[in-house]
Write a structure and sequence with these properties.
- Helix content is about 30%, strand content about 15%.
- The chain is of the alpha/beta class.
- It folds into two domains: about 10-140, no CATH class; about 150-315, Glycogen Phosphorylase B (Rossmann fold, 3-Layer(aba) Sandwich), CATH 3.40.50.2000.
- The strands form two sheets. The chain has a six-stranded parallel beta sheet, sandwiched between helices.
- Helix 3 runs parallel beside helix 11 (about 255-260) and helix 5 (about 85-100) crosses helix 10 (about 235-245).
- It is globular, with a radius of gyration of 20 Å.
Length: about 325
Amino acid sequence: MMLAAGRYEEAWPHFEYRWAALGNNRGERGARPAEWPVPQWLGETSPKRDARLFIVYEQGLGDALQFSRFFPLALDHFATIGFNCPKPLRRLFEDSFGERYPQLRLLDDVPSDWSEWDCYSPMLSLPMALEIGLQNLDSAPSRYLRADPQRAAYWRARLAAVAPQRVPRIGIVWAGGRINAHMDRMRSIAPAQIERLLAWPLAQWISLQKADDASKELAAAQRPNLTDWMTEITDFADTAALVEPLDLVIAVDTSVAHLAAAMGKRVWLLNRYAGCWRWLRERTDSPWYPGMRIFNQSERGNWVDALSNLIAALEAEFPARA
């Protein structure tokens, strides 16, 4: 509740108890992360000039996309930081951080030999160590992910072939992943419901939806204003390249929303009733992402009002041209 109210500095220490609910990296509930032979970094200044911090991946890909904004701030305290980067994010993080932050090492796994590391931090514990609150959240960059320019140019050319420049190119994601079935049902919009949005005729819709089961697939139909290239997308670096030339991304609360927003793209989030703490309560903007606009459900399970409000916003933003 404190996080959802924006009381971040007060909330972060309590957020450490997430391990009791989620379990540790060995799958054991009610425990801290596996015991490692180095201490957790809690924000103290290291006496070593060449101190090294290992940041431990946790939870989901969207969390990693959101909290990677704190890598640069961590580098203000350490000569080197390491991160066990999930494979779907590896190329994206290399594109985004590799040239600017050569002190960041992306590794495949948590070290088996900790002798070269002085301390560790679970990824979602970084804002506690850095004393992040709403008033200083912007001390970390809000536009920190980027697409490879050559891959983005490839998709820009593909888009030009299917949509005239004057037609808004809008990416769309209507369902989340399968990690948590209950959460997925709450945050996702059924294909039959999203058809109402796709029927808006003044855009070229670009699907950013990975169909990991048949229930998320649209009914077979001829949709000349919907393009789906997702079978050609292999990881988040590919997704970023496809997102880069878009005018707007509309998404439910899933990793693509974080990706596009962290690239500085305009994102309209369709947010479930009593949504995740990170979107705060009753907000229509996000302190995490300046380019985000939030359309909230007015009651649990009812997307009608949120979709109506979003369609009205589309009509105001992209009026029909004579």
